[in-house]
Amino acid sequence: MRENKFMLHKIEMDLKDALKTQDKAKVGVLRILISKCKNKSIATGKPLEDSEVMKVLQTAAKQHKESIKLYKQGQRSDLVDQETTELNIVEAYLPSMMTEDEIKSIVTSVIEQTGASSMADFGKVMPQVMKKGAGKIDGGVAQNLLKELLS
Fold first, then answer.
1. How far apart are alpha carbons 139 and 35 in whole angstroms?
2. What 3-state class would DSSP assign to 135?
3. In degrees to the nearest 10, what's the CA dihedral of 48, 49, 55, 59?
């Protein structure tokens, strides 16, 4: 059971190290991540497994990416730099994402397995693609590739 709580424990240990080295950016990000994990744990009524912590981290990374995009549109380079730093801290805890070519091969194999031939089959294919990727697939990239291959 202990190995299922590794991610959150690692984040907590890294927070202690960041406090000792006075890395303010890292301290802030890790505190927010721990808080989000604890809130989710309270909401579910049980301690989080590593897979659930990963989902929290992926959501945080996605939020940072969206913020970066919006700040770039608003020409706020100071905030872009801050969000990029925070995103890098979050991404350090995530497994490396698959490349577009790797995602395309998974999408193609799932299309062949399911016999999908049109956009009507999108709902049947997409969940299987994401399951095969096991948290390493960018859903937006997979969605675009799937639409391209089914149309």
1. 25
2. coil
3. 30
Query: How would you class 76 by CB atoms within 10 Å of its CB: exposed for 0-12, middle for 13-18, buried for 19 or more?
Result: middle
Q: How many CB atoms lie within 10 A of CB 99?
A: 11
User: Structurally, how many domains does the chain consist of?
Assistant: 2
| pLDDT score, position 2 | 44
Whether 12 and 55 share a structural domain:
yes
Residue whose token pair is 């049109």: 118
Helical (H) or strand (E) element with 78 = helix 77-91
What is the CATH classification number for the domain harbouring 127? 1.10.10.410
- Closest C-alpha among 92, 87, 93 to residue 8: 93
Quote the pTM value: 0.71
pLDDT range class, residue 1, cuts 50, 70, 90:
very low
Residue 104 and residue 38 share a domain: no
In contact, 83 and 68? CB cutoff 8 Å? yes
Residue range of the domain that includes 14: 2-91
Last residue of a domain, one of 40, 72, 91: 91
- Mean pLDDT over each residue of the chain, to the nearest integer: 88
Look up residue 40 and give its two tokens: 């989710």
